[in-house]
Specification:
The complex is a heterodimer. By secondary structure, chain A is α/β, with parallel strands linked by helices. Chain A is about 35% helix and about 20% strand. Chain A has a domain of about 170 residues: 3-Layer(aba) Sandwich (Rossmann fold). The two termini of chain A are about 20 Å apart. Chain B has one domain: ABC transporter involved in vitamin B12 uptake, BtuC (Orthogonal Bundle), CATH 1.10.3470. In chain B, about 80% of the residues lie in helices and about 0% in strands. Chain B contains 13 helices and no strands. The C terminus of chain B is likely disordered. Classes of the chains: A alpha/beta, B mainly alpha. At the A-B interface, strand 5, helix 3 and helix 5 of A face helix 9, helix 10 and helix 12 of B.
C-alpha cells in the first residue's frame, strides 16, 4: 500500500524565517502518525504543508498520490480549538454540518445521507445533547469535540489534528483519543501533532522534528534518549529519563529511524 | 399616532424614510459579516476612504457614485499593496489609507466655494434631498447585496469561521473575501447619499453588533440586524423631526443606543442556565 504522504527534501519558509529545513519523511497509509517536537520546531508547518495550506519552497511533497492542494477534498483538518474563535453565532449542530461543505460545495442542499453522517459524527463524539448549544457556551474540551466531529463528518481519507488533546479535560481527551484510534479501522490515515511523549508512543509511527525532521519510524525507533536530546537540546535533561521509562531497552536510530 | 405620522407627511420626508430604510437594510446585512470577521476598523476606514472620490466627482461635476466606486477600488488595492510589501500589520496599512484618503478628500473639496456645505453633505448625507432616481439605485443595490449574501452564504460563513478550514472545504476564502469587499463597497456607495459617509459606519456596525448580543445563528443575526436598522431609521427620522436634530446623525446614533440598551438588559437579566464553562 503506497504511503499517504511522501516528502523529499522539503524546505518551507514562513516570511523571512525557515520554518522547516531540508526534510524527508513518509507517512504510512491507514496508520496513526504523531509529529512531536519542541515549540516552533515545525510541527504545525508540516501539517499545513500536507493540507496544501502553505507552499513548499523546495523539494517535493505528495499527499494521497497527488499534489497537496489537489488532495484537499480528501483531507479533514482539525485545528486547535483555541485557533478558532467561538464568537461566530453557530450552534453545535451547525458547526458540525459545516464539515459537509467539502462535499456540498457552496450551493448543494444536504441530503439525508449528509444529515446521517453529521448525526453519526455527533454521536461518536458524545455531543448530540449539545446540538442546540451555542459554541461560546461550551468549555474548551466540548468545543474540541465539536471540531473533531466536524472533521470526521467530512468525507476524508486523511485526518490531520493539530494538538488535539492539549489542555483538555480527561473525559474529552479520552473521547477524542478513542476516535483517533478508530480512524485506521475505517481505512483512514491519521496525522497529529503533540508535545506528549505518551501520546506519541501510542501512535504507529512517529516523526521527530526540531526545525527539520530529526528522525522518523516506529515509536521505539524514534523516541530514544539520543534523538530526543538532539531535538530538545540541552534543556531537555529529563527527556533521557522519560525515554528510558517509555522504552527500557533503548534502540538508537538516526534520521531515518533505521 | 399623529406624533409618528407627522414627520412623514410630505413626499421628500417619505423618500428620506425609504432611502434611509434601504441604506439600513444594505448596511446591516453586509455589516453582519464585517462584525463577524472583526473588520470594523476596515469598515470605518472604507467609508472615509470613498470621500476623495465623491469630492472629485463633485468638483468635476460627474456622478458621485462613480467617484466613490473608483476611490473604494483604490483603497482596497492600496491596503493590500502596503500589507503585502511591508512587515506592517494590516491594521497599520488601513490606518494610513484612512487618514490619507480622508485628508485628500477634504483637500479636493476645499477648492470649492461651497466648501463646508459640500463637505457636510458628503460626511453627513442629505436624507431630505433624496430623489426617486436615488431610491431606484439604492433598491437595485439592495437587491444585489441580499441576493449575493444568500448566494455566497456558505463561503462567507466558512471564511468567518476559519480561513484555513474554508480553503480545505474548497470554498475559496480569497474569492469570498474579495466578494465581501465588493459588497461593502456597494453598501457604502448605496448609502452615503442618504446617511453620509461618516454615518454609514453607524449602520454598518451598530445594528449587527446589537444583533450579535441576542442571536444564536448568522441568519437570525442578519434578520435581527435588519430589523434594528429599519427601526433605527424610522425612529431616528421621527426624533430628528420633533427634536430639530440632524436626520442622518439621529439615525446613526439610534442603533448604538440600542446596542447599549440590549447589553444593559443582558447584564441585568438573571442567568437561567448554570455556567457551562467547566469541562464535562
Amino acid at each position: 500500500m503506497p504511503d499517504a504522504v511522501i516528502a523529499s527534501d522539503v524546505v518551507i519558509a514562513r516570511g523571512q524565517r525557515i520554518a522547516l529545513d531540508t526534510s524527508s519523511f513518509q507517512i504510512p497509509r491507514g496508520k496513526i502518525t504523531a509529529i512531536i517536537g519542541p515549540n516552533g520546531s515545525g510541527k504545525s508547518t508540516i501539517l499545513h504543508a500536507i493540507a496544501g495550506l502553505i507552499p513548499i519552497d523546495s523539494g517535493t511533497i505528495s499527499v494521497l498520490g497527488s499534489d497537496p492542494d489537489k488532495s484537499q477534498k480528501s483531507i479533514a483538518y482539525v485545528l486547535q480549538y483555541a485557533a478558532v474563535p467561538a464568537g461566530t453565532p453557530l450552534t453545535v449542530a451547525e458547526a458540525v454540518q459545516m464539515g459537509r461543505y467539502s462535499t456540498l460545495g457552496a450551493f448543494r442542499r444536504p441530503t439525508r445521507a449528509d444529515r446521517e453522517k453529521v448525526a453519526a459524527a455527533m454521536a461518536h463524539l458524545d455531543i448530540t445533547d449539545l446540538a442546540k448549544r451555542h459554541l461560546a457556551e461550551l468549555s474548551g474540551g466540548q468545543r474540541q469535540r465539536v471540531y473533531v466531529a466536524q472533521g470526521i463528518a467530512q468525507d476524508h481519507a486523511l485526518l490531520l489534528l493539530d494538538e488535539p488533546l492539549t489542555g483538555l479535560d480527561l473525559n474529552s481527551a479520552k473521547t477524542i483519543d478513542a476516535i483517533i484510534h478508530d480512524e485506521p479501522n475505517r481505512g483512514c490515515s491519521v496525522v497529529l501533532t503533540t508535545h506528549d511523549l505518551e501520546e506519541a508512543k501510542a501512535a504507529d509511527y512517529v516523526i521527530l522534528t526540531a526545525g527539520r525532521v530529526v528522525a522518523c519510524g516506529t515509536p521505539e525507533q524514534v523516541l530514544t534518549a539520543v534523538n530526543l536530546t538532539n531535538a530538545y537540546g540541552l534543556g531537555a535533561l529529563h527527556v533521557r529519563d522519560e525515554a528510558a521509562a517509555l522504552f527500557p531497552t533503548e534502540h538508537h536510530h538516526g534520521p531515518d529511524g533505521h | 399616532m399623529e406624533w409618528f405620522l407627522e414627520p412623514f407627511a410630505l413626499g421628500f420626508q417619505q423618500r428620506a424614510l425609504a432611502g434611509g430604510a434601504l441604506a439600513g437594510l444594505m448596511a446591516s446585512v453586509v455589516g453582519t459579516w464585517l462584525v463577524l470577521r472583526g473588520m470594523s476598523f476596515f469598515g470605518d476606514a472604507f467609508v472615509h476612504g470613498v470621500v476623495p472620490g465623491i469630492a472629485a466627482a463633485v468638483v468635476l461635476d460627474i456622478n458621485p457614485v462613480i467617484g466613490a466606486a473608483l476611490a473604494a477600488l483604490f483603497m482596497v488595492i492600496a491596503i493590500e499593496v502596503v500589507h503585502r510589501n511591508t512587515t506592517l500589520s494590516e491594521d497599520t496599512s488601513i490606518g494610513l489609507l484612512f487618514v490619507g484618503m480622508l485628508a485628500l478628500g477634504v483637500m479636493i473639496i476645499s477648492r470649492l466655494d461651497s466648501y463646508s456645505g459640500s463637505l457636510t453633505t458628503i460626511l453627513f448625507g442629505d436624507a431630505l434631498g433624496i430623489t426617486t432616481v436615488d431610491l431606484i439605485t439604492q433598491a437595485i443595490l439592495a437587491i444585489i447585496i441580499i441576493a449575493a449574501t444568500t448566494l455566497f452564504y456558505r463561503p462567507l460563513l466558512a471564511l468567518s469561521f476559519n480561513k484555513e478550514k474554508a480553503q480545505i472545504w474548497g470554498l475559496s476564502p480569497n474569492r469570498a473575501h474579495a466578494a465581501l469587499l465588493v459588497l461593502i463597497a456597494a453598501a457604502v456607495i448605496g448609502s452615503f447619499q442618504s446617511v453620509g459617509t461618516l454615518l454609514v459606519f453607524g449602520l454598518l456596525v451598530g445594528p449587527p453588533a446589537a444583533a450579535a448580543l441576542i442571536s444564536r445563528t448568522v441568519p437570525r443575526m442578519m434578520v435581527t440586524s435588519a430589523v434594528i436598522a429599519l427601526f433605527s431609521v424610522w425612529i431616528g427620522l421621527t426624533l430628528s423631526y420633533h427634536l430639530g436634530t440632524a436626520g442622518s446623525a439621529t439615525m446613526a446614533l439610534t442603533p448604538i443606543v440600542i446596542f447599549f440598551l440590549v447589553l444593559a438588559i443582558k447584564q441585568l437579566k438573571p442567568r437561567t442556565k448554570e455556567p457551562v464553562l467547566v469541562d464535562a
